[in-house]
Amino acid sequence: MAALLDEAEEPRQLMVGTAGPFWESVLPDVLKRFRKNNSQVKFHILDKHPRDQIDALQRGEIQIAFVSKREAIPRANFDQTLMLRSPFGVVLGRDHPLARQRKVRWDDIRQETFLFLGSGRGSPHLQDIRKLLPRKGLSRQQLKNVDSINALVPLIASGQGISLLPKAFVTARQRQVCYRPLDDARTQLQFQLWAVWRTGDRSKLLKDFIGELRSRGS
Prior knowledge:
D-Maltodextrin-Binding Protein, domain 2; alpha/beta; two-stranded parallel sheet; 5-stranded antiparallel beta sheet; 9 strands
């Protein structure tokens, strides 16, 4: 009887972190399937950078976090499932001459302006770009930092530069930009997105939602 009362009194809401620019690649189908059997559940989305979501999870502000670095997930008291694996490649405007090619090579893009998120050498995005291209292949004059995804997409679409991003980034933006594999990349870099939750959270809603996440990620 106590278990039935606890279940009946459980709040019909889930607090979820955002998957950022990869939201459209991961969650719409999961949410649709989940709501078929849980139509009264309300989702509250907390828009935080992935590096801040683990802290929010620990404080109980959210029940599910999305992070791209598995090493950022604490080993104790957390569980996770892989939601997305996507290869890095060249993202350029649909009117760019290289958009007509199925693949591109370093020689095709060596004179381009490269747009990256963040600022300075410490930008994780810039570090990923350098991993893919020849050592010392880019000059400082070719690099241009961008503050946000919302600014990055129009700049690429209007021919102000190109970037190296996961293929999944283009999923919801195919009218503006396109993805082409980098045929001679120095390494095969894969973006990963992990869903993370506290192992001690006993919410039945959370358990059911995790089941849908695992089904999507498998």
